[in-house]
Amino acid sequence: MPNLEHPAYPAADLLRLEGLVPCRESQVSTLLSIFGERQQFSFPSIFIYGHTSSGKTYVMKTLLTTLQLPHVFVNCVEYFTSRLLLEEILIQLQSCPSGTEQTSPVHCDSLSDFVRLFKQAVATQELQDQTVYIVLDRAEQLREMEANILPAFLRLQELTDRNVTVILLSEIVWELFRPNIGCFEPFTMYFPDYSIGHLQKILSQNHPPEYSADFYAAYINILLGVFYMVCRDLKELRHLAALNFAKYCEPVVRGEANERDTRKLWKNIEPHLKKAMQTVYLREISSSQWERLQHDDGEPGQLKGLSAHTHVELPYYSKFLLIAAYLASYNPVRTDKRFFLKHHGKIRKTNFMKKHEKTSNHLLGPKPFPLDRLLAILYSIVDNRVAPTANIFSQITSLVTLQLLSMVGQNDQLDGPRYKCTVSLDFIRAIAR
């Protein structure tokens, strides 16, 4: 039994729409209830919000296109001024029913001109008998435009006296939009994030025809088991699924396993998924480079551009400053004399190794240290003599700006600033080499 039902639209279109928007049937059903029939007046403005990759843009495009509803779709990032935005709406509106691209220029200098030209466009294209939908994607950009733009879109139906509905799509909540002087309140709708079950269902639909659906679903289950805790973005997960599927199929292609040997398939793909964890969201290498890396069974660092955060180019003394900061953050203060002085004298083992200090300092995290301790360690690990010049202090400030060091406390402390090293041991090893 289909989940989407509406007497105003053909059952075949609704069934096709349901297959195109998996896991978003309840939101589509609510939108269809608000839209009503084609000739009925809908709600003047609808505000849809949710995190990135929650299906807002895709669902709206698919819904309006599948049901062939007259609509205008504009990205507010591309048309970043009010004039560009209003003119683009009018241009798309003129070619709305026929679908042919409008080439004649449209000049719209003010909101009053837009209202007048909008009425003409609706009358010319015989759209007055059905609702026209204006969808504004990335609608948070409207807050950067003139103060009258957002209130006008919210009550455009009243200003034009036409059957029009404005739909705002955004990643932030409505409370951050509402002007201080007040405005017409839109109908607010929330798109929740996809759950792991939803992601499993959506990603499993893209299975290649040469493999069974169960085989690809098992692969998606493994992929989500690795990446779901660090990545919920559907587009990123789809990219990762397409990128690593060939490696997952290798034992089947070579005849070493069949599609049901999940344990053997998992052992083959596990190290490659761990490599892919280093590049989630970063896009540091192209898909062809990643495929070549998998084919050669190389390490991620062998390709230029991969894990670039471990190959940061720093000035000569900045590298020593960062190493000194790491030593100051993870070594106790009373070990400085033992590590950095040649004639430190004898240290009794019983006093040095206390029972509660047997825990690794790397597990406890970095500790703050004063500036004079950082400079003292720096002077001891650099071979030549280093004068405490303004250049050294400016490089410390640069490391804080790059977020390799963080300042603890306020700048106006009487006992001097305190810092904390924020980089990992692998980063320091790469710098030290």
Automatic annotation (TrEMBL):
The keyword Acyltransferase does not apply. Residues 21-167 form the Orc1-like AAA ATPase domain. It comes from the Eukaryota. Pfam families: AAA_16 (PF13191), ORC5_C (PF14630), ORC5_lid (PF21639). GO terms for biological process: DNA replication initiation. Keywords: ATP-binding, DNA replication, Nucleotide-binding, Nucleus. GO terms for molecular function: ATP binding; DNA replication origin binding. Transmembrane segments: none annotated. It is found in: Nucleus. GO terms for cellular component: nuclear origin of replication recognition complex. Residues 314-433 form the Origin recognition complex subunit 5 C-terminal domain. Residues 216-283 form the ORC5 lid domain. Component of the origin recognition complex (ORC) that binds origins of replication. DNA-binding is ATP-dependent. The specific DNA sequences that define origins of replication have not been identified yet. ORC is required to assemble the pre-replication complex necessary to initiate DNA replication. Component of ORC, a complex composed of at least 6 subunits: ORC1, ORC2, ORC3, ORC4, ORC5 and ORC6. ORC is regulated in a cell-cycle dependent manner. It is sequentially assembled at the exit from anaphase of mitosis and disassembled as cells enter S phase. Belongs to the ORC5 family. This is Origin recognition complex subunit 5.
